[in-house]
């Protein structure tokens, strides 16, 4: 793990920019990627746009925002602000002990000077921003459209290869002796080219023709192999795909392979210059990659961050989420269309305080809370962080079967943005209730009463339920029989099955359920989740009129309606085929 003492991004604060209304604030971790997650259209890309506006290629002082860039889509009475807190940059005026504290970009249509771009230092009043000062901390954004052939060309001065070449050139010309040596090499090279008679004739004819055609125009055409100007020493460098030692065309690459190679090139770039004030932003690094490739890219970006490069990601893939370092994952959310984007970023001490307020033991510490959750997490649990709301169930049986049962009742949880998340048993429910609630993600736990258990097993189940009740803010002395008057009990904050999921459904659906289970065992053996899903798909369909609903389905309708409310949606209750 490396800590770089050069220019660093510490924090970004944004107000009234696109989907962001009131101030949001995001701190950059050390030696770990900052990962922005959330639903589509939550505002992740707008955070990236704001950072790129201040630290990207274009000069922020020339940006004249369009109406849709203002929160509320109107500039009237709106002051848009982006503050970027930095460290490791000295005041350019040479003030002693005065470091640049932050870059400030502001736009307000009503001001005499609508656009303002300046810096603040700790102990001086200098504010003039220059390209030289701003360039000490550069933001390299790898967008979702990673066109490898374009990025590895000189089609624009903003392509990745063009930027890389300029950095190489800047380092090269720091050594005057090396420059003179290269000029000598290039001089010899030019003399060799002119030994080709056809080339010499062409060069002489080109000069004569441009003089003739150009008349008194100041510019003509000439041939230059010296490659000595502000950006040309490395201009002949090319990067190309190869296979079996032979160069290949970019058109031969599949989309996924092109994405991997683009990420590999970006990785090498960042590794070479990461300590030189480079912030690497990658939007959706999982795009077009299969799961194993996603894991590989996630590991390489983590490795890059451990070496001191500042990495920021937006993603919809759980492979890029690491819970071991609270504060490295930022949840970006909206409470509805037209609402402002908000962020939740809990540092270790803040997460400890949040879960302990919901009954977590005092033995949970800032040092242990991250590894505790990461070691217990599955990709299904991490995927729940991307959902609008989560239904926490004990295992895969409930997750697979409930999704089918509720869909057939007209409550399609996928459409509602609700994730069914198996947590690995009732003993794990309370801790994930605390974690999701701490991050403001609506949750709804569903669990078994385990009323058929006896002895030590019954005691463990009771302790787990008491822990869960405490996490939900209920009286921990309550027991299952306080909430269940039949096989299925649906309540505002949770639902229960007595004595377990299968037993409760057998009690409601009777012999049909039992027969379908037997049929499922013939196909799936003892795989309970597959059998339960088979039964859920095969049961006689519910009637279209809920008022004529037999008891087998009617006790499940309230569950579907409650989950639709949890997600902020509505549920017609119309059954699916």
Biggest β-sheet strands, sense, barrel: 6 strands, mixed
The number of helical segments is: 20
What is the CA–CA distance across the termini?
56 Å
Helix content: 25-40%
Beta-strand percentage range: 15-25%
Oligomer description? single chain
CATH fold descriptor of the largest domain = Rossmann fold
Radius of gyration: 31 Å
CATH architecture tag of the largest domain: 3-Layer(aba) Sandwich
Low-confidence stretches: 570-577
CATH C-level name of the largest domain: Alpha Beta
E-strand count: 18
Instruction: Please indicate the count of domains.
Output: 2
Give the spatial strand order of the biggest sheet: 7-10-11-3-12-13
Structural class of the helix and strand makeup? alpha/beta
CATH superfamily of the largest domain: P-loop containing nucleotide triphosphate hydrolases
Q: What is the overall shape?
A: elongated
**Quick check: average pLDDT?**
86
How would you summarize what this structure contains?
With 577 residues, the chain is an alpha/beta fold. It folds into 2 domains: 218 residues, P-loop containing nucleotide triphosphate hydrolases (Rossmann fold, 3-Layer(aba) Sandwich); 190 residues, Rossmann fold. It has 20 helices and 18 strands.
